[in-house]
Amino acid sequence: MSLQAAIIGMGRWGRTLVESVQGREGAGIRFVAGSTGTPDKARDWARAQGLRLHDSYEAALADPEVRAVVLATPHRLHAEQVIAAARAGKAVFVEKPFTLSRASAEAAVAACREAGVVLALGHNRRFLPAVAELKAMLADGRIGRLLHVEGHFSGPGAAAYKPGMWRADRSESPLGGMGGMGIHMIDMMVNLAGPIAEVSVHSTARVLENGLDDTTAMLCRFASGATGTFATLAYAPRCWRIALYGSEGWAELTDHEHLVYRPREGEGSVRDFPKLDIERAELEAFAAAVAGGPAYPLPPEQAIHGVSVFETMIVAAASGGAHAVP
Q1: Three-class SS of residue 39?
Q2: Which of 124, 244, 106, 258 has the alpha carbon at shortest distance from 184?
Q3: Which of 2, 260, 300, 320 has the most beta carbons within 10 angstroms of its beta carbon?
């Protein structure tokens, strides 16, 4: 039987999540209800998806048919909403950023553990087949000792943010593209290279005039001793790239599917992986975890650490210099 869920937030991304699984055989999850801050805009879409439209988050939590909630809501609401879902006994899938402070992330994780409910965070690039291959390269020695990581995630979305939109609020979108894009790449760097111990950040507006930064760059040191660099640009053509440099070889993944490997000696390789619906993949993994299957492949400790890195980046950008990540 499919996991019956409610979608909370019916903007562009909430709809994307629902449409990735709704009515698809074998997904393991079916949306039956939801709520949104703009119900009049969502009424027709909700009806077409077969969703009961509740007038509040609390009403959606009280729906006896709902066993899980999927949160596609403003970042500042996540911690409070996760805790409320846990207290209602509902499993929770929450979009990124998980929360905006380490303390609130820890409180949300603690509430889910106390209630015994599954908590999943929407860092969907973890499900890419090419990322599994990068992890295999690190494990089997093809990269050798990891020395340096480079990450990049950019796109022009912030140019469309208008006054009154929650994403146009600097408190919701600190460091420009970090909330919408860059936090994904921070998670990818942690996923591949482990905890980040120290960061220094420069963030500024070079083009945008809507109050948001458009250029954010970070230099970091991992707990392993490896170094890393990262950039997210909120007013640039779309770019997604992760590269690993080691003592025995380097590997670069671009656009999710194109992987280049160059060893110290011998022939390298170029491989193109098939495209994957990563939104469906993450929701299927969430449903499987709720059903008692494999644990969701993003440990809560790493979810908390990602928030801690983001929070420290904000401090580092404001004050200058390097800051240790708690």
Answers
A1: helix
A2: 124
A3: 300
> In angstroms, rounded to a whole number, what is the distance separating the alpha carbons of residues 34 and 22?
13
Query: Percent of the chain, pLDDT > 70?
Result: 100
Calpha distance 129→96 (Å, rounded): 21
Q: With bands split at pLDDT 50, 70 and 90, how would you rate the model's confidence at 256?
A: very high
The structure's pTM equals 0.95
From 143, 112, 119, select the one nearest 259 (Cα to Cα).
143
| Beta-carbon count within 10 A of 11 CB | 18
| Nearest residue to 105 (alpha-carbon basis) of 326, 298, 308, 323 | 308
d(CA 155, CA 244): 22
Q: Report the C-alpha gap between 315 and 324 in whole angstroms.
A: 10
Question: Which superfamily does 3-124 belong to?
Answer: NAD(P)-binding Rossmann-like Domain (3.40.50.720)
Reduce the DSSP state of residue 122 to 3 states and report it.
Answer: coil
Task: Report the DSSP pairing between strands 52-53 and 68-71.
Answer: unpaired
User: Pairing mode, if any, of strands 215-222 and 227-233?
Assistant: antiparallel
Indicate the Cα dihedral angle 127, 129, 130, 132, nearest 10°.
70
One of 3.30.360.10, 3.20.20.70, 3.40.50.2300, 3.90.1600.10 is the CATH number of 127-324, namely 3.30.360.10
